[in-house]
Amino acid sequence: MTNSSYAAAGVDTAAGDLAVELMKSAVSKTHGPEVWGGVGGFAGLYDVSFLTSYRQPLLATSTDGVGTKVAIAQAIDKHDTIGQDLVGMVVDDIIVVGARPLFMTDYIACGKVVPERIASIVAGIARACAETGTALVGGETAEHPGLLGVDDYDVAGAATGVVEADQVLGADKVRSGDVVIAMASSGLHSNGYSLVRHILAQRGIGYTDRSAELGGVVGEVLLEPTRLYTGPLLDVLADTDLAGAIHSLSHVTGGGIAANLARVLPVGSWVEVDRSTWSPAPVFRVLSDMAGSSLESSEGTWNLGVGMFAVVDAGSASSVIARLATSGIPAWVTGRVSMAPHDITGFEQGAKGVNGGAVRLVGAFAS
Fold first, then answer.
1. Between these two residues, 148 and 16, which has the higher pLDDT value?
2. Is CATH 3.90.650.10 the right assignment for the domain spanning 171-362?
3. What residues does the PurM-like C-terminal domain cover (predicted)?
C-alpha cells in the first residue's frame, strides 16, 4: 500500500513545530509593547499608534537575502552568524533613507528542517534585530524536499521602517563641497561570495582548511558577520548638534564601491574616492593574490573595507566621524563632492536604474 502521508513525501511538521519552540525565546527578546500576539501567528501585529505624532510619516521597506554565503555556513555546519548578515542586508538599506526600522520578517527555505539549525539561524537574526532596534514579528520555515538537499537552505527577509517626509536622506540634499565619509566594513559582508567560492575552488582550498594567510579556518574567516550600521547612524541622526549634517547615505553591497555611492549623488556631481585613505583587510588581499588579480579589479564586486558611505556637510565631518567612533565604527574622509564641470570619462555614473552622480576611485590603497 502506498504511503501518501506528508511525512512520506519528506515534510516533517513536527520538526517545524520544534524549531518554533526553540526560537521563541530569542525572537521574544526583540519584542516591545508595540508587538501584539507573540510568536506563531499567521501574521505579525505591530501597533503604530505613535505615527500620529509624525507630521508626514513615510514607511520605508526593504527586502534581501544573504546570497551564496550560506553555502559556506552549510559546509562547516556553522549557522549562528548568517542571521546577522540577513539583518545587515535588509535593515541597513532602510537607514540609507534616514528611516528608523520598526519590524522585520524572515523566510527560510530548506531541504529538511533540522530544528537546532533553524533555531540557530533565527537566533542570529533576533540578536541583530535587537541590536538595530527592530522587532522580529514573524517568519516562515518551508521544507522543500526534492528541490533542496537535506543540508541546503536559503534565507531572506523584509523589514519596514518610518521617517518624516522632510527628513528623508538622498541626492537632493547633497551640495557641492560636501564631504564623503567612508565607514569600515567588518570584512566581505554578504556580497561577492560567488567569486570567493570560485577562487577557492580553483585553488583546491576547502572551507575546513586552515590558512596562515587568512589567520584561521577558511570557512570561519569567510563567515565574519556583516557589520551593522543602523544603530550608530540613528544616534548621529538623533543628535541635535548634528541635525541636518548627513545629506545622503550609501550601503555598499552588490555593484561595488563606486556604483553604490553614485546612486546617492545628484546628476551633475562627481567624486573621486581616494584609495590611499584606507587599507583593505587581509581577507581581500589574500583572495586577490589567490586569484592572481589586483584589488582594484574587484572594486565592482567586493566592498574592500568600506561598508557604508555618508555624504555630509563639510563643517560637520569631524563631529560625525567622532560620533561614529564612539559606537565602534571606524570612519574617515575619503572624498569631496563637486558640481564643477569635469570630464567624467572612466567614472561610474549611477546604477540599478538610478541616474545619479559620477564616481571613480583614484590613487593606490594604503599598505
1. 148
2. yes
3. 175-340
